[in-house]
C-alpha cells in the first residue's frame, strides 16, 4: 500500500473549474473520506488519481512516484464505482477471479481459490459463486464489484459511494467489514460518501470539498469539533448543526454573525425559555424540536424524557461555535 499525494491539482471542464488547486496527502494505511455536496469535485478527484482522467495542472504521486502519463493499469489502483461494473457473461466466481488471473500477477490456483472464498464470505455472496452475474440482484452485483477490488492488493482503493445501492442492514454490515479489512490489511483507501455515519465510523481522515477546493482536512473528530466554516460544520453530524443569529443568546464575540450549536451542545434546564414543538423517540435517544424566538432548533435529550409537544424547556448554549458574515469560524 502507498501514500497518495495531490500537489496543486486543477481540473477544468471547458470553463468550469471542477478541482481548484487541491493539495492533499492521503497517508499510507489511512481511510480518507471525501465529503461535499453534489458537484463539489469528489468523483473528479478519484478519477484523477485512478488515471481515468488527467489533471490540467499539478501533480499526483502514488508511493512517491509521479503518475503523469501513466495508465490506470500502470498505477495499480482498484476503483469501485457507485454503479456495479461486472462481466455479465461470467459467473460470480469468474468475476472475482478475473483480477487475480492477470498474466502480470500469475497467482497460484490455490491462492486464487482461497482469496475468492474469503472475500465471498465477507461480502455474504458465497452461496452465489456459481451464478451468472446477470442472475443477481442489484445489491449482490454491487457486492461482487466490491469483491473484485478487494481480491487485489493495489497501491490504493478508490471507492465512489460503493454502499449507496445496498439496503440498510447490508450497508451496516459492510461498513464494519470494510473498516476491518482496511484496518487489518493496512490498505490505503480513498472513499466518497454522502452518508454521515459511514464518514464518522470509517474515516481516519475526512477531506471537505467546496466547489472544487479542499477547505478542511483532518480527523472526523477534528472537523466535527473544530470546523473551519459553517459549510464544513454542516458536512458532519446528524441531526445537523443548528445555525442561528449570533445575538440570539447573550455572549457572542464581536464580528459574530451566526452561532452554531450541535444538537448535543444545548444545555437544558437553565437559560432561556423555548417551546417544544415535536418529540421524536428513536429508541436509544430522543430528539427534541424546539421553537426559540422564531427559529427552529433540534436537540437531543434523555431517551425516556417526559417532555411533550407544547411544553416549555429552558435552554442555553454549551460549546458554541461562532462564525463571521462570510460563514468563516471565529477563533
Ligand atoms: N466529464 C465532465 N464534463 C463536464 N463537466 C464535468 C465532467 N465531470 C464532472 N464535471 C463537473 O465537475 C464538477 C465536479 O463533478 P464531480 O462529479 O467531481 O462532483 P461530485 O462531488 O463527485 O458530485 P456527486 O456527488 O454528484 O458525484 C461538477 O460541476 C460536474 O458537473
Q: What does this 3D model show about the protein?
A:
The protein is α+β, with helices and mostly antiparallel strands and 331 residues long. It folds into two domains: 231 residues, 3-Layer(aba) Sandwich (Rossmann fold), CATH 3.40.50.300; 85 residues, Nucleic acid-binding proteins (OB fold (Dihydrolipoamide Acetyltransferase, E2P), Beta Barrel). The protein is 25% helix and 32% strand. It has a six-stranded mixed β-sheet with strand order 6-7-8-3-9-10, with helices on both faces. A four-stranded antiparallel β-sheet has the order 2-1-4-5, covered by helices on one side. A hairpin with a 2-residue loop joins strand 14 and strand 15. The model has no long low-confidence stretch (mean pLDDT 92). Adenosine-5'-triphosphate (ATP) binds next to strand 2 and helix 1.
Short description:
The chain is α+β, with helices and mostly antiparallel strands and 331 residues long. Helix content is 25%, strand content 32%.
Q: Which stretches are low in confidence, meaning pLDDT under 50 for 5 or more residues running?
A: none
Structural class: alpha+beta
Query: What level of helicity do the residues show?
Result: 25-40%
Distance between the amino and carboxyl termini: 38 Å
Strand content: 25-35%
Number of helices: 9
CATH class of the largest domain: Alpha Beta
CATH topology of the largest domain: Rossmann fold
The CATH architecture classification of the largest domain is: 3-Layer(aba) Sandwich
CATH superfamily of the largest domain: P-loop containing nucleotide triphosphate hydrolases
Sketch the major β-sheet: 6 strands, mixed
Radius of gyration: 23 Å
Bound ligands, each once: adenosine-5'-triphosphate
Number of domains: 2
Question: How would the global form be characterised?
Answer: globular
Number of separate strands = 17
